[in-house]
Amino acid sequence: MKKSVKSILTIALMGAIGMASASTVFTWKGQSGNAVYSDTPRNLTTHNISTMNVRSQTVNKVDSGVSGSPAGGQIGTTAPVGSDASLADQQAALNAKVALENKRQEEENKKVEEQNKQMRSQNCTSAKMNLQNVQTSSRVNNREALVAGYQADIQKFCN
């Protein structure tokens, strides 16, 4: 009875905290036989581990032998079932994935930089035209303030 009350309180606490953080909680029996709750699986494997959906409060047994699940119950791999990918191989695969994502992000940043360069060029042209219009127009109120503003824009966008 005392153990179930403790488990219910732990689940309620995890539910309250989990709403703002992880949506999945891994559970397993610890060495002393008590339930252990964590946002990462024990030893990064899914062997003898259940997952708990914090929102629905449902617990599901993780089946490490299902096709499409990580290899041998290992978390962070997509190798076929039965392959013995070492931790170093898993890390190398993850590093390659991160490098590919970094390269994609750098290419996107270059595109954005080119767009910014074009926008600065257009802003420079507009500022020069506005300055010329203010200087040559005969009916302009507050000419000095406008000239100063357009000159500041030219300094900002044309240099």
From TrEMBL:
Protein's UniProt keywords contain Repeat: no
Pfam families, per database record: DUF4124
Region Disordered: start-end pairs: 63-82, 103-122
Comp. bias (Basic and acidic residues): 103-117
Record keywords: Signal
UniProt key word Cell division: no
Classification via InterPro entries: DUF4124
Domain of life: Bacteria
Signal peptide (UniProt feature, chain positions): 1-22
Protein name: DUF4124 domain-containing protein
Domain DUF4124: 13-55
Organism: Vitreoscilla stercoraria
